[in-house]
Amino acid sequence: MSAVFRLVDRRPHLTGADLLTRLVPPRRFASARFATYLPDPAHPSQAAALAEMERFTAAIGEAPKPKRWRKQAAAAAPARYLDGGYGVGKTHLLAAAWHEARSPKSYLTFAELAGIIGFLGMESAIQAFSAHRLLCVDEFELDDIAQTLMTVTFLRAVIAAGVKVVATSNSLPDRLGEGRFAADDFTREIAAIASHFDVVRIDGPDYRAKARVEADPFSADEIEAMVQTLTAGGASASDDEFAELVAHLRVVPPVQVAAALEGLDAVVIRDLAPLDNQGAALLFVHLIDEVYDSGLTFVASGCAVADLFPAAYRRGGYRKKYGRCESRLAALLGEARIATRS
Ligand SMILES: Nc1ncnc2c1ncn2[C@@H]1O[C@H](COP(=O)(O)OP(=O)(O)OP(=O)(O)O)[C@@H](O)[C@H]1O
Ligand SMILES: [Mg+2]
Question: How far apart are the CA of 138 and the centre of ligand 2, in A?
Fold first, then answer.
């Protein structure tokens, strides 16, 4: 059934227990497999990353090595950290590892993990994941001191319980938190987090640039036509005005945003405009992350993607988040343009 909704009317309240039942790769990565990751021969780190992740995933859940091998096995880090620029396929490899590993396993973003620990409390969260073979955490990052301390405790406990972990990030583990809080005062904690991981570096251009033929926002008339076409075709779309939506995001906890998008095929945002509040900008970035991961059609009118975030934000501690968001917005708008032509 087709319908038009407003995101500003949606305020989901999933409980911690609800959230635990949904920890699988999002729609965009539902079919990501090692076999569908095509390493770029110009960037040998891609083939090396693929081979390493296949090896790591295959070894998960294998019987413990005989005693004489144990010392050597103990030296291998229990976790992998996929590091690289935007759109190089980190999340693709993360989702592939999840799909190909044996259960019990979970896939979630770092923001969701932080939300779940907040909901359940540390003890219960550790318990919920301790019997897992694999925990996949997308977009690992440290925004503040509380998150840093929480991450130290959580990782230490689940890794001691034998859980293997794979994470992706745009920042190297020993540089987490840089420019966001007094990370220099927490080098010991950050080093403790980094010590669990072997870094798997992936170089290369933004794969999404291939889909980004034209990333300009749509005109008001084009948006009108898109909404008509979408709903006539039986799609469920949300249709919101940017300023109102940004204000609404303040009352929707980030961990509930994916649920707010549930049941939708398309998201329409009218009148994008330059943001002048860092808090609002980060909430909008999170919304776009969820829209992108969910594989929804996205159309927007208003200012150009390059004008959304002030230059000062792109020099600060969150610059990579904004860069990533621009890459995703451009890819989403490009995909929608291609779709309207076909
Ligand atoms: N080598 C590859 N072969 C096939 N598909 C790829 C490859 N690299 C990336 N992709 C595809 O390109 C898109 C972007 O990749 P992905 O989202 O995994 O990048 P990322 O490194 O996680 O980027 P970000 O830093 O923005 O999170 C995905 O749809 C992914 O499946
Ligand atoms: Mg990613």
Answer: 7
Q: Which ligand is nearest to the CA of 97?
A: 1
Q: Provide the 10 A C-beta neighbour count for residue 73.
A: 11
Instruction: Quote the CA–CA distance of 89 and 46 in Å, as a whole number.
Output: 9
What does the pLDDT read at residue 210?
67
Q: Which ligand ends up closest to the CA of 321?
A: 1
Give the closest residue (by CA) to ligand 1 atom 18: 89
Find where tokens 């090595």 sit. Answer: 65
Query: Torsion over CA of 213, 49, 115 and 15, rounded to 10 degrees?
Result: 90
For the whole model, what pTM was predicted?
A: 0.91
List pLDDT tens digits, range 225-242.
988 888 888 899 999 999
Q: Tell me the pLDDT tens digit for each residue of 162-190.
A: 999 999 998 888 888 888 888 888 889 99
Q: What share of the chain is helix, strand, coil (3-state, %, to 5)?
A: 55, 15, 30
Tokens at 78, concatenated = 């229990």
The residue whose CA is least distant from atom 31 of ligand 1 is: 92
Single-letter amino acid, residue 70: R
Pocket test for ligand 1, best of 91, 166, 171, 291 (most atoms within 8 A of CB): 91
> Measuring from atom 9 of ligand 1, which residue has the nearest CA?
89
Q: What pLDDT, in 10s, does the model give residues 17-65?
A: 888 888 999 999 999 999 999 999 999 999 999 999 999 999 997 765 5
- Collapsed DSSP state (helix, strand, coil) of residue 131: coil
